[in-house]
Each structure stands twice: as structure tokens, then as C-alpha cells.
Amino acid sequence: MELEDKLKTLAKLNLMRGREFAPSNKIGQVEKHLNGTMKQNRFGEFVLVRKGFDLSELHPIIELSPSLSIRGEFLSRICIPKKQWLEVRGLGLGVSSYKPPVPSPQSQASSPQSHFDLRDAVFIDCETTGLAGGVGTYAFLVGLGFLSGDEFRVEQYFMQDFHQERAVLSAVEERLRGFEFLVSFNGKCYDLPLMETRFLINRLDFDSTRWHHLDLLFPSRRLWKRRIVDCSLGNLERQVLGVQREIDVPSFMIPQIYFDYLRTGEVEPLVPVFHHNVHDISSLLILSFLIDQALEDFTRTEIKDPKDLYSLGRIHCHLGDYQTGERCFQQALSADLTPEGRLSISLSLAFVYKKTGYLDKAEEIWSLLTEGDSLFSLTAHEELAKYYEHKRKDYHQALSFVEKALSQLKTNFPCNKDSIRSYGTSGKSQLDSWEYRKARLKRKVSKPQVA
């Protein structure tokens, strides 16, 4: 955000005027400006703000009806209990080396994780006193969203001062007990670790392994990063959900607004922070619905961009659904693509054919990528070399592809981009590998053939 834009935002939110310490009636202001109520538990008082929204009014285009439901088959497979994502150091689609298992009908029937139930999920978002985390960062506002009947309800737990933290945390933990799934955006790296730290410091129990956690940041990146690059929640709202917030407080300003409130006692500047929190939580619901819909049947969505289709096809292949992955790649190839984009999608489609046993179709794609004015593809030459050596036993043809690849590698030493993507090794290692393959094929060519 440029300085001029920041100053305009400050002016809109009326946050540019100086503030002097002026204690005021916080309880009265909370009721007036936030429409909140004072609650009390065994640890003390806190503020609770409740809001209800008609599902049909949450988004101008995406239809969210009272009968809203999600099959949950795909979201369940990227929704992993914390004790598992600690082991793999990632969550679902966020870790390329971790492949969620394909659940059997028996495991689906017995496992509570087998079906992501939207009506048993709570959407969580915290507003904090700092953006870097750590033991000195407090979650002064914890927002929880959930479906209730025909409404989407948001409950916001707010601490008026630091001494109310234990009361807020206790109330949040008690409310979370009624749900089985936690949905967040970057909660794996920020919200949940922060909550765990605050509970530990306050000597309260918080066993986060009791919930299955769906962090929408990772599937969002896998699905849209190729097109929009910036996969922050605000940019996803603008570029994917088609929502532009009229007046919104920037995240970097929120800690200072809360500190100003502690100093002056004025609640009014906090109102945009509460609205910001509600918008974030509502977007999580819409994003969950859109991702599930895209994974279940992309033809019913507005996903038309070839970059999105390519990403979606890779997700389906990652989940073992090669048939749907093939459909995504085929539709992406029918669009107007750059040479680099066509090469990447063609290689992925060839991989699907190879994986599913249609080697003749894969060979046809690899051959097209080695002819004419196509970008040089080291991967296509390697696959053809393996195909003709091991499947067709045509060692002369295999050797010709190896020699072409070696010529390209030596010309563009240390290595080209395609080789980096395919192997992740240095150019010297590439040359050694291809020279070894060449020597082996030469031995096979010179070896007398048995009649």
C-alpha cells in the first residue's frame, strides 16, 4: 500500500487526529458503539458481540442458501488433525511431499474426519496486539463464525484490558467445544500457535488436537497462486470472490488502534476493527464453499482461466483423481496460452496418461514437444528416451533423444529451467546423468542382437 493510500485510509477512518488520555465509561461505550454485552465467568468479565447474517446476503454472486451444504469429500482429505500435520510439518496441500491417503469406504464410515461437515465447523480469526507473534502478543479480539439454522452467526470475544484475557480465553475454549472442525486462514502458522501460547501463559488447558484443522491458505495458494500471485485473504476477496470492501482498516494499523483504546478509553475507533474481523470470517465461509465446489465439479464454477484449470488439475492428480485432472488439463489447453504455459500443461497431461497406462497418448504429446518450433523440453526428451529404451526396445531411437538432450545441456550449461523443475539438480549432475544414459545405450546398440 502506497503512502498516499495509507493516508487516505487514515482519513476515512478518522484516525489522524491526536489523542489525549481521557478515561471514559468503557461499558457504556461498548454497548453504544459495538452493541456488545458484558459477560462474566469464573475468571472475570469480558465483552461479547453477537451478529447474525442471512446466508443469501453474504455474497452478491455466489449463492449461499439456507440449505447450504458441502459434501466434504475433498476438504476432508486436506483437513488433517494437528498431531498429523506436526509430523509432516505442513497441512494438506501445503506440503508437496505429503500425499493424503485415499480413504476407504470402511474408514470413511468410522473416521470422524472422513466428511467435512460445514454445520459442525467453526471459522476462527484473531485480531492481535502485534503481527509477528511471540509471547508478548495478545489476541484482544477472537471472532468465531458458524452456521445456525438459516443464519451465519459471528461471536466476537473482546478483552477491554489485559486482566480480562483469562476470561476471554476460557469463554472461547468453552464455545469451541461444540465443534469438530476449525477453519482458519494461516491459522496453522499464526492463530493456533498464538492461542496455544496465550493459554499456556495463563495456565489454561487448550488441547488443539481435539479439532480437525482446515487452513484455507494452502489450498488457496495451490489453486490460485499461478494467476494472482498474492494469495492474502484481502486479495483473494478482490481477485477471486469479486468483493471490494468499501472502508476497511489495514491489518498493520489494528495493534495501534487497540493501544490507543487502552490509553484513551474511546471505543469508536475500534468499530472498523470489529467490522474487519467479521468480513474476514465471512470470507472464510465463502472461500470454503468455493474451493469445495471447484474440487467437486469445476464445470459448475466460474473457473475458466487456464492457469486456474492447470492448478486445479494438479490438485486432483495430487489427490489421485487422474480422470478429473485430465479434464482440467484438456480444457486449459483449449485456451490461448503462452508457449511456456502450453509446455507445462502438456507435460502434466502426458504424466496423467503415463500414470494411467495410456503410454501411446503420452508418447504422442512428448513427440509433439520435441518437434517443430516448440520450446526445448528436457523432460520430453528424457521420457521418450526411457519409452523407446524400456518399452519399445528401440535403442537407436532412444540414443537419438539422449544425444539431443546432451547437446542442449552443453549449449545452455549449467542447465535450463525445464531441467531445474524436473530434477532440482545442478547442470553438472545433469550432464553426468545423461552421459551415463548415453554410455549405457551405446553398449546396448553395439551388443549383437539375438535372432
Structure overview:
- This protein has helices spanning 3-12, 26-34, 73-77, 82-88, 105-110, 165-176, 187-201, 217-228, 233-241, 254-264, 271-296, 306-318, 322-333, 339-355, 359-369, 378-391, 395-411, 417-423, 427-446, and strands at 37-41, 44-54, 80-81, 121-128, 139-148, 151-158, 181-184, 212-215.
- The protein is 52% helix and 12% strand.
- With 451 residues, it is an alpha+beta fold.
- Helix 8 packs across helix 9 (233-241), helix 16 runs antiparallel to helix 17 (395-411) and helix 17 (395-411) runs antiparallel to helix 19 (427-446).
- It starts with a helix and ends in a 5-residue tail after the last helix.
- The chain has an eight-stranded mixed sheet with strand order 1-2-6-5-4-7-8-3, with helices on both faces.
- The protein has two domains: 3-296, Ribonuclease H-like superfamily/Ribonuclease H (Nucleotidyltransferase, domain 5); 376-451.
Secondary-structure topology with pairs:
Elements: H1 3-12, H2 26-34, E1 37-41, E2 44-54, H3 73-77, E3 80-81, H4 82-88, H5 105-110, E4 121-128, E5 139-148, E6 151-158, H6 165-176, E7 181-184, H7 187-201, E8 212-215, H8 217-228, H9 233-241, H10 254-264, H11 271-296, H12 306-318, H13 322-333, H14 339-355, H15 359-369, H16 378-391, H17 395-411, H18 417-423, H19 427-446
Parallel strand pairs: 4-7, 7-8
Antiparallel strand pairs: 1-2, 2-6, 3-8, 4-5, 5-6
